[in-house]
Structure formats: C-alpha cells, structure tokens
Write a structure and sequence with these properties.
Distance between the termini: 34 Å
Structural class: mainly alpha
Strand content: under 5%
Helix content: 40-55%
Radius of gyration: 16 Å
Number of strands: 0
Shape: extended
Number of helices: 2
Order of helices and strands: HH
Largest sheet: none
Length: about 70
C-alpha cells in the first residue's frame, strides 16, 4: 500500500518565469550551499546506466549528508 506524505504543487510551465519557482530554486541552492561543498560530492568516478539511477544516487547522498548534519547538532 502506498501512502502519500505531504503534497507539493508543481508550477505550470509558462513562457515567462514565475517568481514562486525562482524563490523555491533559490532556497534549494541556498540549502545546498549551507551543507557545504562535500555534501553530495564523492571522490572518484561513477557510471550509471540511466539518469534515474544517477538522480537516485545524488538524492541518497544528500539525505545521508542531511542526516549527518542533524546528528552533529544534537
């Protein structure tokens, strides 16, 4: 059984930029900068068969970094 936790409304694709999407992107970049340059980066070269695998690996690295930062604050 799948369970949805939270919701997010995707902005519509338009010809002109939306201020809300720009703000959300800026907050995301700011969060990544606060995590540091080694937040998701890894040493070495990794090869992936699909973009989905690469994105999943990146998301896992980000989650691990965020969890480590949370433990540091405790």
């Amino acid at each position: 059984m799948d369970r949805m936790v939270g919701t997010r409304k995707e902005p519509a694709l338009t010809l002109h930029a939306c201020g809300e999407a720009l703000e959300r992107g800026a907050r995301f970049v700011d969060t990544l900068c606060r995590l540091g340059s080694q937040a998701v980066a890894f040493k070495g070269v990794r090869y992936f068969k699909t973009h989905e695998e690469a994105n999943e690996d990146w998301a896992d690295g980000l989650a691990r970094c965020m969890a480590a930062r949370r433990l540091e604050k405790r």
